[in-house]
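Researcher: Quick sanity check before group meeting.
Model: Go ahead. Protein one:
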Amino acid sequence: MAIQCRRFQGESDYIKLRDFLQESVSLLGEKFYININDLEFAFDLYDNKSHLEAACEQLNNLVLWFEDEKIIGGIWIFNKMQLFINPEKKHIFNDILRVGEETVKEFIKEGKEFITMSDYSECKWCVFQGDNQLESALIANGYYKTDEYWVLRNFDYSKAVEEPKLSEGYYIKTLAEISDLDKVIEMYRECLGMGFDEYTLRNVNKFDTYREELDIVVMASDGTPAALCSGRYDEKNKMASFEAVACFRQHRKKGLSKAMMLHALKAARALGAEVSTVLTLTPDQFPAPNRLYESVGFKLSGIKYIWKKIKE
């Protein structure tokens, strides 16, 4: 079948994409990390948009590969060509890559408004170490593996989750139970660099993978937020993915983040999760979060290296 590549076209593509991503997780497990949880967490609900409007608008810079009308993969240009591909189609990745490059180069040449790069050599791929089919195709097409990488860890619930123990005076609420979100917004911005506003945080419950039990805030004795974590739950694949964990500096070194994560893991298990995942940046550069996830029982399941195009 001929491979076609085109820009994301709205609601019908969103539904196809969501189904494709969930099916691909079923095939490959947690290593297929560009799943609907990951995409939905990146959406902001500014300007009073519905979750579907926000999703379609912010996937505007997505290019999708098709065989007939069936999605077989995609590249998310906002993330400088973040790759996701049907695990059963890796054997034709060389052809997929070529068609994608031709399509995006044409968009750049025409000055399409959604392109966030001026030259294709700016693009990069994220590929798990040891994925020989993808690595070979990238090398053949002029890419090299950089020293940048992400670490994927999972918690498989083969053992009981340790009981969380909060320091005296601290207690847990869900985000939905908090009336004043100013400090939560401040924590997202200061600790995680995420510019959420109140409207976004109040309406994230409209996303398919949102579960109130996984949107947790640790409160201090004075009633102000001290730490937070947020995750998503893929019911079809029984997989929880944690995307944001933060603690204000003045509340650190009190075991709050560990207790909070243990609470979240228990909540995910109660929802039916058989595995929980977390993706972190290079441990050498960001040791604290990596130590946290190891301390609660997350195990290394893959290293995801950044590949870049050799500039001509």
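Researcher: Fine. The other one?
Model: Protein two, sequence then structure:
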Amino acid sequence: MNLLGVKLTLLIGRTVPVPVPLPMMENLDTVEVTQSDTGQSGFQITFKAGRSGPIDILDYQLLGNPLLMPHNRAVIIVTLNAIPRVLMDGIILDRQLNPSTKPGASTITLSGKDVSIMMDKEQKPVERLAQNEFVAALMIIAQYAQYGLIPMVMPPFMIDFPLPMERTPVQRATDLQHLQNLAGRFGYVFYIKPGPAPLMNTAYWGPPVRVGIPKKALSVNLGGDTNVERLDFRHDAKQASTFYGKVHDRNLNQHLPFETFASLRIPPLALFPAVPFDLLNVRRTLLDNVEGLNYAQAFAKAQAETDKSMDSVLTATGELDTARYGDLLEARGLVGLRGAGFSYDGFYYVQSVSHSISTNGAYKQRFTLTREGVGSTTPVVPVL
């Protein structure tokens, strides 16, 4: 399907997704994809479902199509500026029928999550003998190679190797929950990003990505160069917090104090982050639940909580028209912003993006951007 110079390709299938037949694509109404930097991304595909001929006497014809059954795999590809982008590679989990008294107004809606949902099907106890968090993440991801997972696992800045004579880590959750729990110890994230090619996915376990080539700048209040339809900012200083405490290190058999003073996210996106520029007003929080941890683990947990508390001190939410913007925002990436003034211009981390594609010719992107404070760290941002 082509609209506004955008080509939409839809693949669905039980084992290997295949292109949706033309008659079904002609009934396509809307496609929505929501990408988030944490948790699972989701999608909704809506088809028009009329009943107008002898074949539809018993039931809606589309309901009998095996491609629209739950548990099928769905791949959504958008080609913009001659470059294909995989927006979603996921599993259909829910099918809704919405009958209407108006002819041709009935709809069938398919909803689902990205392929990480297949990691969340079984809660199981597993002994991770001599496996630290880094190794355990690699071992779990390797079990799902049938979904084209490419592991991208970043080692934590502090690694504690579990010696079998001392302890054996045990998993008591689903694979997805366990990966997220392991990542949370270091302020890391786990997610599955579709691409770089159809039927391939990148399984990322590591710190939030704040490096790379920024997207084309979002422009506001710049006359004919404005490409954002709506933009709102919120500076929430109470989000920032440092953490401190004391832990009994089992290796040294001593009580050792620990404390954090700033976010270690690299690179910093704000010229004046809440910490250390407003350290006197930042909340100082006692870190609980450190029993049984050594000093390295306790400090890593405190630093993880500090990093997360700083991430969303400044939040920008808005909406843009894709045809005017000429590009696709990507969650977990960077984008520049201009026209809002020195305090709010500069680079931002893209926390989430919702793509809404309609066959009536509309393609909107709703987004949430974050960073650790105010002030631009650069005089210019890329505009092309």
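Researcher: One line on it for the slide.
Model: The chain has four domains: 2-115, 122-206, 215-235+314-376, 237-311.
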